[in-house]
Amino acid sequence: MTVKTCYKQNGVEDLPILNCKDTYCKMTNEELREKLFIEDATINIGFMNERDIPSETQFDIYGTHSLKEILDELTELFREFCKENGFSTRKVLYLQYLQYAGKIPKEDDIPEEYKRDIVQK
């Protein structure tokens, strides 16, 4: 599967916001793509190499971007990496965040059905 297909089917491993039990965890992968912004992400992509042996590569994406923008950039970076090394772009096994300096969506960006779950401090 491709980077984007892998995200749609499996999400992203070790993304702290997906491991919690608050409002943002109830968002779908599609909602997170649009509403979650991440700063300076380091991401592993697990894939099968040309000999069908599991391999891994790592990419750094600097600046603050939506998860959608990060997936777009990852797709392009992985495509270039695979072209240079003779690998298929369709054998992605997983996406894993190694560094997370993200920020959660602004309250105005949260769909109404999730706002009732926000605990005011």
List the helices and strands and how they pair.
Layout lengths: L2 H8 L18 H7 L1 E12 L5 E13 H19 L6 E8 L12 H4 L6
Antiparallel strand pairs: 1-2, 1-3
Helix pairs in contact: 2-3
Describe the structure.
By secondary structure, this protein is an alpha+beta fold. The protein is built from 4 helices and 3 strands. The protein has a 3-stranded antiparallel beta sheet with strand order 2-1-3. A hairpin with a 5-residue loop joins β1 and β2 (54-66). The radius of gyration is 16 Å and the shape is globular. The N and C termini lie far apart (42 Å).
| DSSP E strands, number | 3
Percent of residues in helical segments? 25-40%
- Overall pLDDT: 76
Radius of gyration: 16 Å
Major pleated sheet: 3 strands, antiparallel
| Helix-strand sequence | HHEEHEH
In percent, how much strand structure appears in the residues? 25-35%
**In whole angstroms, how far apart are the ends?**
42 Å
**Spans of at least 5 consecutive residues with low confidence:** 101-105, 114-121
- What is the overall shape? globular
Helix/strand/pairing category: alpha+beta
Number of helical stretches of at least 4 residues: 4
Lateral strand order in the biggest sheet? 2-1-3
Briefly say what this structure is.
By secondary structure, the protein is of the alpha+beta class. It contains 4 helices and 3 strands; from the N terminus they run ααββαβα. A hairpin with a 5-residue loop joins strand 1 (37-48) and strand 2.
